[in-house]
Structure formats: structure tokens, C-alpha cells
Amino acid sequence: MFGWSILESVGAVWLCPFLFVIMMQVFQQFIGINTIMFLFQTVGFKNDASLLSSVIIGLVNVLSTSVSIYAVDKVGRRKLLLLSLCQNVHQPGDNCRNQVLN
User: How far is CA 9 from the centre of its chain?
Assistant: First the structure.
């Protein structure tokens, strides 16, 4: 059974990183791919095609993971992180500009 003895055994130094990782996982569940997969299955297909939607999502997940592993091996984590950072910084500004101009 889970208790505070686990946190006491790792010490106070690791308490903040431990809680941070737990909160990241909780946040991931609310906004991550699991939510999108659930919404895709409930909205995208009828009830009789739920198996087909699960298979499609699984195949896309495996393919995306394979491409990601290959990219990390070839390009490197740091370059991919900096590339995604630039895209995440640029995209909201681009969206605002498009909304103002239209």
C-alpha cells in the first residue's frame, strides 16, 4: 500500500522533483494524446467502428514513435528540442497575426 514512507525514504531533496514529475503526468492526462485519442474514438466513428478506430490509432502511434526514435538518433535531442521551441514560440504570434489580418 502506498504511504508517505516512500517519500520519507527518498529524502526531502527529491520531494520537489518527485512531485513535479507526478504533476506533469496528471497534466499530460488532461491535455495529452490520451484525450485526443478518446475524443477521436467517440466523435470520429460510429459505435460499430470502434475497433477499427483503435487499430488505426495504434498503427499511427507505432509509426509516429518509430519516426521519432529515428529522428532522435540521427539529429539529436538538443537540436530537436531547440527546433520545437522555435516552433512553439513562433506559432502563437503567427496565429494572432493571421487573425488580425483576416
Answer: 30
pTM: 0.45
- Write out the residue range of the structural domain in which residue 38 sits: 32-76
Q: Which residue in 13, 15, 12 sits closest to 23, CA to CA?
A: 15
What's the one-letter identity of residue 24? M
pLDDT tens string 82-99? 888 888 788 777 777 777
- Please report whether residue 87 resides in a domain: no
Residue 71 domain flag: yes
Looking at the structure of the chain, the number of domains it has is 1
Buried b (16+ CB within 10 A) or exposed e, 19-58: eeeeeeeeeeeeeeeeeebeebbeeeeeeeeeeebeeebe
